[in-house]
Amino acid sequence: MTQAFIIDFAMESIKTTLLLSAPMLGFGLITGLTVSIFQAVTSIQELTLTFIPKILAVFLSVLLFFPWLMQLMITFTSKILINFPEYIQ
Is the pTM of this model over 0.90? Predict the structure, then answer.
C-alpha cells in the first residue's frame, strides 16, 4: 500500500460518508430553521418543539432516499471487496 492509495481510499470514504449523510442533515437543517422561524414568530419558546419535527424529517428523508443510499453503500462495499487482494499486497 502506498501513501497515494491510502489518501485516495480515505478521500473516497469521506466522500461516501458525506453523500450518505447529506439528505438527512439537509432535511434536519431545513426543518430546524422552519421550526425556529415559527417559534420566533409565535413567541413559543418550547425546547422540545424542535425535536419531534426534526426526527420525523430525518426519518422521512431516509425513506425517500433509501434506494439511492443503499446503491451508494453497495457500490462502495463491492469496490472494497473486489479490490481486497490488492489491499493486502
Answer: no
